[in-house]
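tool_log.txt
---
The assistant was asked to compare two proteins side by side. It first ran the structure predictor on the initial sequence, then on the second. Raw inputs and outputs are pasted verbatim so the downstream comparison step can read them without reformatting.
(1)
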Amino acid sequence: MMMVRVLVLWVVLHCLIGTPNWVLAGNESFFRCGTDVIQLGDSNYRVLAKCGPPSTREYIGSNYRYSMPAGELRDVEQWIYNRGATDFVYLLMFQGGALIDISRGGRGF
């Protein structure tokens, strides 16, 4: 009975207060550029067309993808979008031209 009360209290507080920032920090599944939404799997061309050039664009290296009948090398890039002091810094990781990871860093500058 006590566990049910604690669970109900937690749900009510969660609804009233909202989700804490430490739960939301880290990896994201989408990135908003104005009214456009960028999602995992989007091409680097689409991200560039919707969001404009990144603040920083860094070539990480190549990654070998095993497939049949022959593997292939895929370039890995990291794009950094610094949205200014009122927003966060977003790190977008591309592999083979496809968006594979979106991470949110600290506050922009």
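(2)
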Amino acid sequence: MFIKFTVVAGPSINMYEKEALKMIKAMGLSGTVPSAMSPEDILPALTMLESKLNINVAEAESPSQSGYRDDFVDAKTRAFPLIELLKYAIKENKSVMWDRD
């Protein structure tokens, strides 16, 4: 199942539900679907998401996980489309909504 993130009168993205819920919670939100963020709430949520993703990347790059894994996509890579969507919403001063798709 997917969750669709949409900027009001703007672009949208789909993300697997499992990953989307992790991202929503990493933004400091409850994980409720459907839900939305008002324009003034997006910047703090984006800051928190990027902060948590940077911590996860540092942990994933630890020496204990040396070697190549072709089945691993880090959370920061998975979050890239959502981060760009949030940045667009901030720039355009628009709300972001999400719901199951």
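---
observation on (2): Residues 11 and 85 are 7 Å apart (CA to CA). Residues 2-56+73-100 form one domain.
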